Amino acid sequence: MKMKAALYYGFGEAKDVLKTEAIQVPEIGPGQVRVKLFASGVNPSDYKMRRGSRPLMGEWQIPGSDGAGMIDGVGDGVPVSRIGERVWILNAAYLRPLGTSAQYTVVENWMAQRLPDRLSYAEGACLGIPVMTAHQCVFGDGPIRGKTILVAGGAGVVGHYAIQLAKWGGASVISTISSAEKAKSALQAGADAVINYRQEDVENRVKEITNGELVDRIIEVDFGANLELNSKILKSGGVSVMYAYTTQPQLPLPIPTLMSKNITLKFTLVYTISDFDRQKIFDDMQKWLEETRPIFQIAREFKLDEVVKAHELVESGKKIGHVLLRIDH
């Protein structure tokens, strides 16, 4: 049986290397499930991989780590009862060729998590990298009730969920943003206060908002660019958690300030977290999805044949919310 898939054979610009082709539906191995996909998330990691951040795992690569669909086949060792189950998918393209930008994918059993009935497939395709990253950044050191957390870039997809999860966990949340539109997004997610870093002095505003007490934890989208600032607005014993970097992949540290305040610097990559941490995220996500109605911001949906446009939009940064592929059959 053939399926339609978006794939690339080498690295480069989306318009130069991404193609949509008919290829063989993958076979199911032991401990695996095959998922008939209806939606695929397009994340920054997808265009970074397409540009060569990780090696090809075979002749070609189907991009897309996140997606949602229905299990239509299982391998040895997987209960047959899973056939017909609605699921959301994670890690499909991490060191694997079979991403979610296709009509079908085959993943390890644990990579296909049950999708609550009240969530659409489009919403399910939002749950992987963004929500799991946000959770690990927010709760990676335990409960946060009563703490003050600053979420940098609260209108980004990870930041948007970090705000929601932090509020669910009982924290006060400040978020930095760069426009009125992004301020509205962060406030809708639940932020108690927003700071426009292009128009306001972030250090002084944090002191005003917290009555000089500063913040307990920072969820950082551009670690190098804001390290000096973050060392000033963190409390003694505070934690700065980085999940992305853009401007300064290598940099000197303001060691005297960091050391004098006993500040912890943490780095998070959700693909490589421990099995224990991953299961904790799964358990918490299930509770969060049961107890709240998460806000999913979907900026744009494209057809699978429009995968180049989807990648280009994500790469441009000119959107608020998720970019998805709608997978038709």
Give me the secondary-structure topology.
Elements: E1 2-7, H1 14-17, E2 19-24, E3 32-42, H2 44-50, E4 66-74, E5 86-89, E6 104-108, E7 112-114, H3 121-124, H4 127-139, E8 148-152, H5 157-168, E9 172-177, H6 180-189, E10 193-196, H7 202-209, E11 215-220, H8 223-233, E12 234-242, H9 255-260, E13 264-267, H10 275-291, E14 298-303, H11 307-316, E15 322-326
Parallel strand pairs: 8-9, 8-11, 9-10, 11-12, 12-13, 14-15
Antiparallel strand pairs: 1-2, 3-4, 3-6, 3-15, 4-5, 5-7
Helix pairs in contact: 4-5, 4-10
Descriptive report:
The chain is globular. The protein folds into 2 domains: 2-126 and 296-326, Quinone Oxidoreductase, Chain A, domain 1, CATH 3.90.180.10; 130-271, Alpha-Beta Complex (Quinone Oxidoreductase, Chain A, domain 1). Strands 3, 4, 5, 6, 7, 14 and 15 form a 7-stranded mixed β-sheet that branches. The chain has a 6-stranded parallel β-sheet with strand order 10-9-8-11-12-13, with helices on both faces. The model has no long low-confidence stretch (mean pLDDT 95). The protein contains 11 helices and 15 strands. It is of the alpha/beta class and 329 residues long.
